[in-house]
Amino acid sequence: SSSLLRSSIDGSDRLSDTMSGASSDEKKAEDGPLEKDKDASSEKKQEQELSAEDQALVEGLELAVERLQESDAGVQRLALDHLVKEVRAATSSMTSVPKPLKFLRPHYDTLKTVFDPDEFPLKIKKKDDEDDEEKKTNGATKPESSAPAKESVVPSRVAPENKAALADLLAVLAMTMSTPGTREMLSFKQRGTKELGSWGHEFVRSLAGEIGEEYAKDPRQDLLDLVDDVVPFHLQHNAEAEAVDLLMETSQLRKFESLVERKLVHEHNYRRICLYLTRCAQYMPDPDDLVELFEAAFFVYKKMNQFPDALRVALAFPPGPGDDDDLDLDDEDLALNDDDQGAPTSSSSSRKNRLRQLFDEAPLPVKKQMALIVGRHGLSKFEYEDDPEVNELLGNNRLSTYFKALVKDLDVEEAKTPEDIYKSHLGDTYSSVTASNGARAAQRADSARANLSATFVNGLVNCGYGSDKLMTVDGNEWLYKNKDHGMLSAAASLGLVLLWDVEDGLTKIDKFLHSTDDNVRAGACLAVGVVSANVRHEADPPIALLPEYLEGDEVSPIIQVAAIEALGIAYAGCARDDAKDLLAPFAQSSADMTLASFAALALGEIYVGTCDHEVAAIILQRLMETADVDLDTPAAKFLALGLALVYLGSMDKADATLEALKTIDHEIGRYASVALEGLAYAGTGNVLKIQRMLHICAERLGAEQRGTKEAKGENSSSSDGGAAGGAGAGTNATTNATNTAAGVEESKAQTDDAHQPKESLQPSHHHHQSVAVLGISLVCAADDVGSDMALRTFDHLLHYGEPAVRRAVPLALAMLKVGNPEYAVVDAMSRLTHDADAEVALNAIFGLGLLSCGTNNSRVAGLLRQLAEHSRDPNNLFVVRLAQGLLHLGKGLLGVSPFHSDRFLVNKPSMAGLVVVVHAALDMKHTLLDKLHFLLFHIAPAIMPRFLVTVDADTLELKPASVRVGQAVETVGQAGKPKSITGFQTHSTPVLLGVGDRAELANDDFLPLSTTLEGVVLLEPNPDAEDKPDDDNNDTSQ
To answer: Is the full-model pTM beyond 0.85?
Structure first.
């Protein structure tokens, strides 16, 4: 009974609580406005309960504001001094507003009225009236206030002699009190004094931001006058980044001339300024702004006598309006600009002009260092005939010597065989032995293909070493183990083995030039071009030997093709007019589409990135005049690629050619447009171009374009297929259903590759979308942030993209991270090697080779070895072997990354070679897996040692030095002297450098002539080294 009683009491209590809660809620709902006002008034009273110190501060500020409204100028001055003193002396934590600014907020409008009653009429009375009316409507009574009632009298105007000081005070208050977008801070500061520093750095930064916003809206001279005050303040207080930002926002980078003259830019801060300028280049979409930025950096470096750094900036300029036309300026034209030491101008001189100025002014040892940098950037038409030794370094004639010195130092001189790379003996389990037996059976069934893959592996692994165990031995047995077109690549592989050693290489190649077999002679011609890649020899052997193999009716077409390709590889980036005269007739009028396409490709490589109008016109005219049947051939896309290479890195200078390509009705026109646009903005990080490429990738092809099997029974008038395929189907598009995908006739049933699916024979089937995927990786390649974002984008394309898009993603990943096998990318590529789509799998295998090219990465080596053991398809096995050869390129001492100088510069011939190889891999079944496998030799211009070699500045002999090698750390915008590497190890040169590695000298014994330690660096003795004998120990112990 007691428990029942307790439960009933508890239940009644809960019921009463519920009812009382409901009644209280109803009461609150009825009296809501009154309760809210009471809460607000209580909060206001709590705010008014200040400490004695704060109360004194409030009273002092209010009294000063009151005295400022009087008419006596002296009293106004005293009041102003008190306000200024309190504001300047205010301190606060990181999360609170300074108390004087907080307490002056209610008086901001009053102070503005005192400053100018006409411009800022008093609104206090009106606001109080509105508050009273609002409170009356809410049923609330006006709370009593201890403060006196505000008067409606208009304050007196401040005296003229005090107006500037009040304007300064108002500018500071406006930093936190003004309405966003009104830019009152800037308005008051323009009417105040020129004093900046006393208000603090945050005030100056905020002021600079409003100057930039106002200048973008209304560029006025008074704003530039203020810029002249703000920029020196920033430079004097180690805020170089803010100074550069303001100059860029107001387009006043030319002011660096006066800043240098006034010693505001000096030896202690110019490196931070120029580093920030060059890093900002990635975010300059307008080419004119980019040129102005580079002009400023070039000018500062040159004024500080930092000629190697100025040279790098000069090489980074986008092609100018005269870079393709005035490369032959005479000495009188160059002398006109020798005295141009003034501010940078928008009418930039040609690249050759800038280089010539630097070489003329620099001391001899620095000239040698600059020549090595120019040689690493790729061959060009620039020569320095005043000094034969410098000209020799410009032509990379010592590259082979330095590389072999590295080989000897690392003790890897012994040549390797393909089996040393395959390591078939490592598969010791029963399953792997069974699988490897199956692979060997596949090789025996296609022994010519196996020998061809071994040829490529041998050439890539022993690249640049000068000897191997297959081609340089006596007897030439290996050459004749290949047959037909395989002999071409076998002979040409000799060029890779002897790479850069022109004199010794030509002696060993010469005997094959006189062979009776056309394929061997063709391979020897190609070897002449490969061995001369990236080297300009005084004898100029390619142009001396190859023309005789281009002319004459008795010359076989295969020899002509090889000689054309050899000229393109040997003179990549040189803009040689004599080579153009040889190749132009083939590109213009050759009846053989293969000859015409490869001639156009060679022209594109020779004039890569020059925007040469004559070469572009030749290729464009051939595209317009060629019949659709010829444009359907697999080689036709290299005609379009040659045109695109001419505009590599040219940005908006390719717009006119893009418009001309729209007149081509065939799908090859769209292929050329996408390739041209991607290459024109390669390395720029332009977000708009990435979006355009994504739009192309997102196009959904019609059923006809997904494959001819589904389309054979459908009508040829699919609107989806027409939209995705381009501009119409041509005159023969109505003959059968398979002609409707993009206006491509399938009248080539007699082709030798009839066993391949017909849809893969059509460039129009998917290649423009594949090229768009490659375009994304090209645009993002130089930007670390963009590269990471592109990785996620490619993941989406793999899940939701068309087959054509998916097939290009592995190659795009490889281009994005070439020579840098990051774990996540390798893992993604490994999964793609087992994709259900055979083309995706082949491209992923080849992409693994490019991704890890020259790194000897053990994880990738294991993956490729497993793929080889379990391969049943000869094509798969061939591509695996190519990937293994690329992985072990030069036994791990060479790389193909086109970026150098801390990834600031792009080697255009190197980029062109990579692009050609990747485009060939897009249609692998008709190029690398067919008779065009020699296209792989286009990688030769991209091959460079990934070393750091230190040499004596006078003798150019090797000089070992102690260096620290670690992971590069970004230091842009950081104050002081931050560490540029982390996780370093100390070595003695020569040393190897990875893609993300950076080196610095470990002691002060020598002075490097280049601030970026990579490649070949010249050293001079440090005269002050004896004064610091313990620096070495202190540095290496970190």
So the answer is: no
